[in-house]
Amino acid sequence: MRFSGLRVLREGLTGNKGWAPHWRDAEPKAEYDAIIIGGGGHGLSTAYYLAKNHGMTNIAVLEKGYIGGGNVGRNTTIVRANYMQPGNSEFYSHSLKLWEGMEQDLNYNAMHSQRGIINLCHSDGQRDAFARRGNMMIAQGDDAELLDREGVRKYLPYLDFDNVRFPIYGGLLHRRGGTARHDAVAWGYARGASDRGVDIIQQCEVTGIDIENGQVRGVQTTRGAIKAKKVGIVVAGRSGQVAAMAGMRLPIESHILQAFVTEGIKPVIDHVVSFGMGHFYISQSDKGGLVFGGDLDFYASYASRGNMPMMEHVMEAGITLMPMIGKAKVLRSWGGIMDMTPDGSPIIDKTDTEGLFIDCGWCYGGFKAVPGSGFSFAHLMGTGNHHAPAARFRLDRFRTGRGIMDEEATGSQHNLH
Ligand SMILES: Cc1cc2nc3c(=O)[nH]c(=O)nc-3n(C[C@H](O)[C@H](O)[C@H](O)COP(=O)(O)OP(=O)(O)OC[C@H]3O[C@@H](n4cnc5c(N)ncnc54)[C@H](O)[C@@H]3O)c2cc1C
Fold first, then answer.
1. What NCBIfam families is this protein classified in (predicted)?
2. Residue ranges of the chain with pLDDT lower than 50?
């Protein structure tokens, strides 16, 4: 089933009776060439690119809940390529290019909107740091513009520019950054993979990983044992638990990140605005809700909900930056389980078990990575070789200390970047 304007028109005129389910809800087979554990954005995009780029179609994606129920459907949807460290810089640049062709590639409307991101600065030192970051982004082939105070005012006149503690000095504008409809990204990849023969199996929790003589043989699930010579672990906040099934102890802590949305209001915020000093960022959804968030809850947890002190902190930071939002009513808040590495950068690698691969550690930046991560992880699983833009995401950097990518220069502590 292909989507097109003509199809939407025809369906609209004939009672919308011709739409079919977007992907097959498959039953598990006894054996596959490859199994992907986790039907989040990264798992689904991995399956899609394994099928599309590497001709592997005898694949199952095993999801313990439902497609889109994890962080891929819980995030605040910011997509950008404004990283600075070698390793992250080329990876996110590649991922953003995939975003720019994704809707055509998948024939699916993910509402990708390149409305621009503005990171605000509040001191000379911070402006210097942004100038350096902007130069690195340009050197990587991405876009960056340093705005002075009046430059920011032109785009965001409603901010409090003269706040005593955080007066606005300027900002870094990344025009190709923006937002997307998060669950549509999961559905689009699920549909694309399913159309190429991949089995998407929901309500199927992996409870064990079978290993013999150092080689992976398959998995145990709540729907029975399934054999496979290749298994990819892509379970975000549950990475530590699932890797433990293969006897691994990962350098990952799981922390909660919250997000909030207000009632729908008229269009007012047409960029993504990030207020790093206050740990606050905001955008406006196409339905009109103000979508915003802040920092981690700061203690390890597997609860998909957040704590009240962090809610208070985020609201206070928001009102400090743009007092007008104090009038908006918050409709909902939620939390997601973040897989935090010590250096804030991800892992895409083989493991010591032959045929067992891992993709995790996306911290709070993994939505923008969905296409790039799937592309690179599929390359690794399909060919056995690292894909160049993700070649630095090695697991052993935490053992050897070589190749640490400390993006925020906060040192090796999981909850500080
Ligand atoms: C509040 C919030 C805001 C965020 N904002 C942004 C943002 O603006 N921009 C950005 O880039 N990133 C953002 N992120 C981060 C991003 O959402 C994640 O890094 C990314 O979605 C994680 O990858 P995923 O989509 O594959 O994870 P998930 O969707 O969580 O997928 C993992 C899946 O594995 C399944 N699973 C777990 N254990 C098992 C098992 N034993 N068997 C089978 N299946 C299993 C889970 O049910 C889940 O569906 C945010 C996250 C949160 C929570």
1. soxB
2. none
